[in-house]
Structures are given as structure tokens and as C-alpha cells.
Amino acid sequence: MENLEYRLNDNFQGYPALFQYQNLDTAELACRMSCEYYIKNAEVYRVVSSAVEPHANCVLYVEKEGSNHPYPDEKMYRGITIEIREFISKDNSPLLDVLELNYHTEALKYLQSDFIYTREIGKKGTFNEMELVCTEIDEDRGNYVFYGKRTGVQVNR
To answer: What is the 3 state secondary structure string of 75-95?
Structure first.
């Protein structure tokens, strides 16, 4: 089991701990460390660096980006889910698909990919190639998010 700490990237304040997680399985730790953004208590944080300290304590150093402004189609999740959103702008990222997974090891392949293929909700057969813009973990809603841009490549299956 692994420990993870989110710390404010502020040398003058001595890098204070913001949030701590204990006894994470290694796959969940890897998923969290794969995300560039972290949302907690309606605040958005950007991960700027990471470290593994003595005794294997993992640390993510973050900078506060501002308050979270939810999209109208956001919802709460249980279990391991990844929303696939098309990144158009910071304020406009429509939901394309929701992946409901059984294990964090499954989530890793999506969160660490530069390209994924996804169907749009309600459409069958055509998969759109999405190029990674960024990933986040939204603690408030209990899910991961893959933001991507359409490449124009489509695959029919």
C-alpha cells in the first residue's frame, strides 16, 4: 500500500501539505500521479512536479489555478470512471463518453495514452481519435477526466 501527499508548491511556506491519502494501491497511486490537474473542495490545482521521498512516500507539488467552474453535464460517480471530454476551450468541453471500469489498472492505459478512440454517447459503430490535452482527477465528483482534441481520424467497428 502506498501513501500520497499533495503539497502546495510554495518554498516560502515550506511546501505545506494540503491533502494526504494513505494505503492506496499502487495502480490508484499511478493513476493519480498521471493526472496534471486535481480538483478538491471546488478548487483546481495544477501538478507542477512529483517526488518519491525516503520510505516511499509519494508527493505531488501543486499550484492553485482557481475555483472550479462545473460544466452543466457534470455528475457524481461511484467506482472507477473516466469521462472523455472534447477540449474546445477551458469553459467548453462537452462530454463525449464515460468509461466505467473495474480496476485502476484499466484506467492507467487511458490516463497514460496520448491518443484514445471513443464513441460519442448515443452513437454506435464510429470511433473518433482523440489526442490528449490533459487529464485530471476530480475528487469532488469521484472520477478521472481525459480531455482531448479530435484529430479527424475515424474508425468504424
So the answer is: CCCCCEEEEEEECCECCECCE
Neighbour count for residue 147 (Cβ, 10 Å): 20
Beta-carbon contacts of 55 under 8 Å, excluding residues fewer than 6 positions away, are: none
Reported pTM: 0.93
Cβ 148 vs Cβ 116: under 8 Å:
yes
Domains of the chain: 2-67 (no CATH), 80-156 (3.10.20)
State the chain's mean pLDDT as an integer.
94
DSSP for 124-154?
Answer: -SEEEEEEEEEEEEETTTTEEEEEEEEEEEE
Asked whether the predicted pLDDT for residue 122 surpasses 80, the reply is no
